[in-house]
Structure formats: C-alpha cells, structure tokens
Amino acid sequence: SSGSDENDVVVIGGGPGGYVAAIKAAQLGLKTTCIEKRGTLGGTCLNVGCIPSKALLHSSHMYHEAQHSFASHGVKFSSVEVDLPAMMGQKDKAVANLTRGIEGLFKKNKVNYVKGYGKFLSPSEVSVDTVEGGNTVVKGKNIIIATGSDVKSLPGLTIDEKRIVSSTGALALTEVPKKLVVIGAGYIGLEMGSVWGRLGSEVTVVEFGPDIVPAMDGEVRKQFQRSLEKQKMKFMLKTKVVSVETVGNGVKLTLEPAAGGDQTTLEADVVLVSAGRIPFTSGLGLDKIGVETDKAGRILVNERFVTNVPGVHAIGDVIPGPMLAHKAEEDGVACVEFIAGKEGHVDYDLVPGVVYTHPEVASVGKTEEQVKALGVDYRVGKFPFLANSRAKAIDDAEGIVKVLAEKETDKILGVHIMSPNAGELIHEAVLALHYGASSEDIARTCHAHPTMSEALKEAAMATYDKPIHI
Ligand code: FAD
C-alpha cells in the first residue's frame, strides 16, 4: 500500500515525537506514513518510559499511603499487601490501551502505519524490513527521523534485565528486591528507586557527581534530597562505580570515591543502571546518505529541524535538547509546520521539567544559579506548603514554591515547585513565562481557595511584597 506512491512526509519512529508529527502532518493535509519497528506505537515514553513509570509510581504511592498515612486520616484495616502481578497488570493495561489509542488516532487522521525497521536507501527512500518478515520501500518528499533514544550502559557491565536492569527491566521486576542499587541520581533513577523503595526495597543511589538531578535549583534540590532521605533512600554521591558483577543470586558492586581513593563494595539483589540515555540511530543508514551527527551521536539540525541533507529532518530525543516527551512533541509539530510552509516555534527555555516522586518537583525557566550567572539583579519569593491550607487539610504539606523575578521589571525568570502534584501546578507558571508575566501578574490573579495553587500566588506576592499567610 505504501510502496510505490510517494508521501509528502515519512516519519521514522512512532514515539511522542514521531507519532505527533505524523498526526499533525496529516491534519495539515500532507500525505503521511509513519514507520515503527516496535510493533506498538508510543515509543519509549508510552511503552517503557513515562507512562508505565507513572502507573507504578501511583500504585506504589497508594500502597505506601495505606501503610503510613491512612490510619492518621482515620481509615483503618487489619492488613495491606502488595499483589505485584496485579500491579504490573494495571500498568500493562494502561500501556496497551494507550498504544491502541494512537493506532486509532492514525486511522482517524489517515496516517499510513508501516510496522518495521526503516533504513535509508536515499534521502527520499526508506527500506522497511517489516515485522511480518517482508520488505517494502517507502518514498517521501520529506523524511523525519524520530528514532529517539536508548539506555546508556556503562563500560564493562552487561544489562541482563533481570539482576542488572535498565529502566525497562526495573518496570517489570517479578519480585520486590530486598536491596536495590540505583546507578545515577537523575530523575529516572529517583522515580524507579521510589517505586521499589515504597514496595519495600532498601534503595541506595550511587552517583558520580556531587548532586542529585544537577539541573534542579540548588535550594529546592537540597529539600528534595532530604525528603527522599526521610523516605529511607540512601545516597552515595561523588562515588564512582568501578565494576558490577553478578555473584550467586545477587550482584556485587565495587565503588571508589570519584576523586580517587580506597575501593569499597556494595551488595544488591538488583542493580538499576540509569546513568543517562543516548540517541538511537543504529541500522538507520545515516552514513549512507551523509547525515551529520555530533560527538554524542545526536543528529544536527537547523532551526527548521532540517539536517545537512535537504529533505531529511530530525526531532525529539535523537537531536540536541532536553530528552523529554513533551519536547519531542513540540519538535514534531513545529517541524511539520515548517514542511507545510507555515511557521513553527519551540521555546527551549520554557520546557518544563518534572520529577514524579512524592513530593513531585517541577520547574520552568531559570534556576537561581543560572540567574546569578546571568548577572541580573533579581528577587526571590518563597512560600512553604506548610502554610498552605489545602496541603494542611489533607496532611500532605511537604514542599515549597520558589519564584525568581528580575528586580527592575518584576518579570518572572523561573519557578520551582516541590509539592504533591507539582507537575500539574507548574503550568500556570509556564504560561506566565510564555506571556512574559511579572510576579505581580500572578499575585493579582484570583486563585480558588483552598488549593495548592494558592502557594504559587503567595510566593509570587513574596517576590515584591509580603505574602499574607506566613
Ligand atoms: P522515542 O520515544 O524513543 O521513540 C522512538 C521510536 O522510534 C521507538 O519506538 C523506536 O522503536 C522507533 N525506531 C527507532 N529506530 C527505528 C527505525 N530505524 N525504524 C523504525 N522505528 C524505529 N519524558 C517525559 O517527558 N516525562 C516522563 O515522565 C518521562 N519518563 C520516562 C521514564 C523512563 C523510564 C524513560 C526511559 C524515559 C522517560 N521519559 C520521560 C523520556 C521520554 O520517554 C523520551 O523523551 C521520549 O520518548 C522521546 O520521544 P521520541 O519520539 O524522540 O523517541
């Protein structure tokens, strides 16, 4: 079906970048085919990333609350236990429903879907080894590479997805490990560490750098780390992993201080390797058509998402920028708008970042460290959730809002929130930054009471005046 007739747009990869680009292209009237090798749509995010991790974060949080919070709310029962297969089943059901949902959206928007592994024959022809075992050639005036990213392993270590796992294995463990060691204190490691910690694992996070989630505002990060430590997560920062070997039924890690020094060992039942992700382009035949990449293997594009090869575009995790699903989606829409002769735009300074632990941490714009480095005079407004009535009412009041605004103009430069549901609360700030709002704009906007969002209003007030409730 896709073989001989030429497409306006061919998308390689059906993740949040690729499938959104394909739907948008079809909506703009372009004849579109999307090629995906996995057998299901949604990419890393839907199949082995954002969605299954959030399913398990929610389920494990419910268990944790049942154990530690329900009684103080007057909800008592004699025992509570984890049914891990059922928990995994609910996660798998959510994933299956959502991937089928995207197939439905493809049909609705008349996106042609080819299941198979794509590789370039020329800048306008992609050969696909189909999932069914055949081969077909898909032609397009424009090709969009949206092949995403893959787990980065560490030298001398073999991920078996049973005892030495990537995030993919950590989303599908068949029993709760007694001891879990997480290598890498980025958001993926902390989220998966939280899941298993809540279900009963002793979790130790080993990190080479001096800080967990280094991109986070320093002050918020300190509170966040304390919060995770209260949840019994242990941190070994400035620590290098020298080797990881399976021994008997377990795993032995050899560690040494990042700055050099005596080695120590650490035992674990399961080790999660979450030390970053790398762009995925293997088997794609980039060299065949001469597409340029940087040292990290990321495909280089101009501001219209076009590579050095005319007609060949790239978006999402496979190009430079934050490796996040919503960023990939924005890339996809803008890329296709350019192809359709319209103007596309992504503001990379305003891509929100969220860590979906409990409490969550969400941020947009600049950290205090970044503002300082810019050398602009600024003000800081803070408000703790301990003084927020809704948070107190539900007895879930750990966290803070921090607003950074330019001193002279009061223009908001960055907002950082640590709280339950911070990932939802942040969007008011994202919108404010998009509109170039001042902190007074937020402070003078009527917020419903009692809501967690009032904490943002008060923090905004605190940047140029006094907050009311503290
Ligand atoms: P991908 O989602 O990686 O999709 C690329 C697709 O292309 C894949 O399905 C792959 O099979 C296919 N493909 C590759 N090569 C070929 C080929 N040659 N032919 C055909 N098909 C091919 N981001 C967030 O924003 N929020 C989160 O909460 C979040 N949580 C995460 C949790 C985990 C555990 C992980 C691993 C990631 C998480 N991410 C999260 C990151 C997010 O998953 C990625 O940023 C996002 O999936 C990138 O989208 P993409 O479309 O660029 O690539």
From TrEMBL:
Keyword terms, alphabetized: Disulfide bond, FAD, Flavoprotein, NAD, Nucleotide-binding, Oxidoreductase, Redox-active center
Presence of the UniProt keyword Nucleotide-binding in the record? yes
Recorded GO terms, molecular function? dihydrolipoyl dehydrogenase (NADH) activity; flavin adenine dinucleotide binding
Can you quote a single GO CC term?
mitochondrion
Summarize where FAD binds, as residue positions. Answer: 54, 118, 147-149, 317, 323-326
| GO BP annotations, alphabetical order | 2-oxoglutarate metabolic process
What sequence ranges are listed for the domain Pyridine nucleotide-disulphide oxidoreductase dimerisation?
351-460
Q: Which cofactor does it need?
A: FAD
| EC number in record | 1.8.1.4
> Its catalytic activity?
N(6)-[(R)-dihydrolipoyl]-L-lysyl-[protein] + NAD(+) = N(6)-[(R)-lipoyl]-L-lysyl-[protein] + NADH + H(+)
Q: Does the keyword NAD apply?
A: yes
The record describes how the cofactor is bound as: Binds 1 FAD per subunit.
**Any Pfam family matching the protein:** Pyr_redox_dim
The residues annotated as the active site are: 449
**Cysteine disulfide links:** 45-50
What InterPro entries does the record tag this protein with? Answer: Class-I_Pyr_Nuc-Dis_Oxidored, FAD/NAD-bd_sf, FAD/NAD-binding_dom, FAD/NAD-linked_Rdtase_dimer_sf, Lipoamide_DH, Pyr_nuc-diS_OxRdtase, Pyr_nucl-diS_OxRdtase_dimer, Pyr_OxRdtase_I_AS
All copies of domain FAD/NAD(P)-binding, residue ranges = 8-332
Hey, which family's this protein in? Belongs to the class-I pyridine nucleotide-disulfide oxidoreductase family.
Additional remarks: The active site is a redox-active disulfide bond.
The protein's name is: Dihydrolipoyl dehydrogenase
Organism, by scientific name, is Nicotiana tabacum (Common tobacco)
